[in-house]
Amino acid sequence: MIKENLTLLTDFYELTMMQGYYKNNRNDRVVFDVFYRTNPSGSGYAICAGLDLVIQYIKELHFTYEDISYLRSLNIFDEDFLDYLAGFHFTGDVYAIPEGTVVFPMEPLVKVIAPIMEAQLIETAILNIINHQSLIATKASRVCYAARGEAVMEFGLRRAQGPDAGTLGARAAVIGGCVGTSNVLCAKEFGVPALGTHAHSWIMSFENELTAFRTYAELYPSNTTLLVDTYDTLRSGVPHAIQVFKELRDAGKMPAKYGIRLDSGDLAYLSKKSRQMLDDAGFIDAGICASSDLDEYLIDSLKSQGAAIDSWGVGTNLITSKDCPAFGGVYKLAAIEQNGTFIPKIKLSENQWKITNPGNKTIYRIYETDTGKIKADLIALVEETFDESKPLLIFDPISTWKKTTLKPGKYKMKEILLPVFRNGTCVYESPTVLEIKAYCQEQLATLWDETRRLINPQEVYVDLSKVLFDLKNEILDTVNSQKESD
Ligand SMILES: Nc1ncnc2c1ncn2[C@@H]1O[C@H](COP(=O)(O)OP(=O)(O)OP(=O)(O)O)[C@@H](O)[C@H]1O
Ligand SMILES: O=P(O)(O)OC[C@H]1O[C@H](OP(=O)(O)OP(=O)(O)O)[C@H](O)[C@@H]1O
Ligand SMILES: O=C(O)c1cccnc1
């Protein structure tokens, strides 16, 4: 599923444009930026994810004999262009922000520098991959934030939008902070923990709840989590679970990890009552897991209600990012090479926020030295250099009066857009998913609490360097004066 050749996973217009470029002998190198304009779910940040699949996709790019025959059958592509496609492979450069990094609106997450035919073809798949995985990684980081460090298991496969979304979404959820997933294919493919309890059907398939619990506990002596809400949580489920735990204790076979799962009803009330019953029976280390249509807001609310829950199973709302189903990443042309120099390009909009940033750019993350927290991100042209031993003026590119001068010694800069392909060859090795998850935790720690909060977070400034800001305004002035003279 994930490793297949995805070359035709593109919008038809990319191919019709490609043929147009081909027929007009236009294959100049261009710069395209992938960026998004608004953080999903009202978040103060996003987590970028999906680069590993983008790399696999680009490495595999080629049109098979069947692909070419299919395109020929559409009666729109000429033989000379189809011949070109038959020999097609990617020859360009790609730069990207590593997976698991916290990112902010308007900054290029991926930058493609390639002949326009190649750069155009890969737009759709790159957006498809980055948009989906970044959306779910961001959602997972919010859910895990609400759980305040307690384990969150990803349980959404059955309600995901198809097998790929379920599997790659689970990968992204682990990057964002989940301890593992119920999705076995994801666990195998990406080397992440396969986790789970059991279903109501297990209980219902036995003559009674007690026998179902006993049988499960015998089968899985090292991790016995019993689902207690099939008939009556407090009158039947929890007492039966306690009875089974007592039998295990009496037999000297106490599981290393054991507890109950609540899946319906008032989770705050039921968890507190269950906790009391378990504690009274001497099972103070029994865990209480909760599931049932949870999301970050419900978990946060349950926490503030004092719910006695210590692990969480989250499915539908996480794997589908139900409150915000699209990430909104776009792919915009930023420059075209002419005679060896990149000519910056701009896309105008009535909305100032939507006007693109021109040129071949990179991003510097600016950290406060005292705290290690992010002060701002700075988008600059690649040829610019910065000297940390000098003061740095940063200002908001829209509300330019919002500015600050950073003193030498008080800030550090780190370039976060890294080379991934050079001249068509991959020069980047993706870390494992668990390494990316650990890196993501470090990244989240560089955010201020005010930016992490779930509602109305403080935004992080993404500024333009003075050189880029001036260039953008110069181009805007030129375009505007051209419009007036037309
Ligand atoms: N204490 C609580 N505070 C806020 N929300 C809660 C609390 N307890 C449960 N919830 C949420 O309320 C919703 C309850 O859903 P609903 O009433 O449809 O069914 P249920 O209790 O899961 O029972 P069933 O599965 O039998 O229909 C779930 O989203 C659950 O997470
Ligand atoms: O609520 P979500 O966040 O989507 O989490 C996944 C849900 O999937 C299961 O229910 P389901 O009714 O599918 O199966 P079950 O009979 O095992 O409860 C599980 O018990 C959770 O309630
Ligand atoms: O293992 C579980 O408890 C589980 C798995 C998928 C969906 N709901 C629950």
Spell out the key features of this protein:
486 residues; single chain; nicotinate phosphoribosyltransferase; TIM Barrel; binds adenosine-5'-triphosphate; alpha/beta; 6-stranded parallel β-sheet; 7-stranded antiparallel β-sheet; binds 1-O-pyrophosphono-5-O-phosphono-alpha-D-ribofuranose; binds nicotinic acid
Let me know the largest β-sheet: 7 strands, antiparallel
Which spans have pLDDT < 50 for at least 5 consecutive residues? Answer: none
Task: Please write the CATH class name of one domain.
Answer: Alpha Beta
Beta-strand portion reads 15-25%
Helix and strand arrangement:
Elements: H1 12-23, E1 29-35, E2 46-47, H2 51-60, H3 65-73, H4 79-86, E3 93-96, E4 102-103, E5 110-115, H5 116-121, H6 123-146, E6 151-154, H7 163-176, E7 180-181, H8 184-190, H9 200-204, H10 209-219, E8 223-227, H11 233-250, E9 257-262, H12 267-280, E10 287-290, H13 296-304, E11 311-314, H14 316-319, E12 330-338, E13 341-344, E14 361-368, E15 374-381, E16 392-395, E17 403-406, E18 411-415, E19 418-422, E20 425-426, H15 433-444, H16 449-452, E21 462-464, H17 466-485
Parallel strand pairs: 6-7, 6-11, 8-9, 9-10, 10-11, 15-21
Antiparallel strand pairs: 1-5, 1-12, 2-4, 3-5, 3-19, 12-13, 14-15, 14-18, 16-17, 19-20
The structure holds adenosine-5'-triphosphate, 1-O-pyrophosphono-5-O-phosphono-alpha-D-ribofuranose and nicotinic acid.
Family: Belongs to the NAPRTase family.
Domain Nicotinate phosphoribosyltransferase C-terminal: 360-472
InterPro entries: Aldolase_TIM (IPR013785), N/Namide_PRibTrfase (IPR041525), NAPRTase_C (IPR041619), NAPRTase_N (IPR040727), Nic_PRibTrfase-Fam (IPR007229), Nic_PRibTrfase_pncB (IPR006405), Nicotinate_pribotase-like_C (IPR036068)
